[in-house]
Amino acid sequence: MVLLDLKLPKVDGLEVLRRLRADQRTKLLPVVILTSSTEEQDRIKGYDLGANSYVRKPVDFSQFIDAVRQLGLYWLILNEAPPVRRS
To answer: Would the pTM count as exceeding 0.70?
Structure first.
């Protein structure tokens, strides 16, 4: 699972997502956009590029930790990943 912020210093988070989805090795990797952006356009673009989820990052640190913990529980324990393709 990748927790991806949109506001990265050198490469835009949406560009990172674009590259992840273009690479066969990471195409199906779960990507959760975890960002402070409230822009509707960011959410639309994120889902258009293949994000699995979009979560607005809480400002309060303890709420942030709780949100990340809940995301981890869902994606790593409850979610069923796609089956591995046999070549």
So the answer is: yes
